[in-house]
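User: For my dataset I need records formatted as: sequence, then structure tokens, nothing else. Please produce one.
Assistant:
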Amino acid sequence: MKTKRYFVSLLLVLMALLLLTTAVAAQEEPDRVRLTIDNRTDQVVALSLTGPEARYYLAVAAGTKQIFTVVRDEYTHITLACGQTASGTVDISRQLQLNFTSCTVQPANQGEPGIEKIFLTESPTKTQWQYQYN
């Protein structure tokens, strides 16, 4: 009888430890969000992101689209596209798609919040845009 009680007690302790370690591991995992870069230019687009928790260097080949998973945060960026460089901030606290438009033709509009068109010579004018220039 004592062996059975001991075994049940040991089993309960092990289950509690398992639940505790699972909860701690879940808390340590950073919150991530999707960043999509759609490169509609005829050149490589490169984006350097520096944040308090993470740093990324993302490159997307001409005419392709790539999806990245990044830590949810606000970053400073350096963007290289169409032979030009721009810097500023990008708020990736929610899902974001950046559409890099043709190097020669300015887009008719800036897209919409969350799906933003990037043309390096023209700065976004609306404050709700997540991607901004300095």
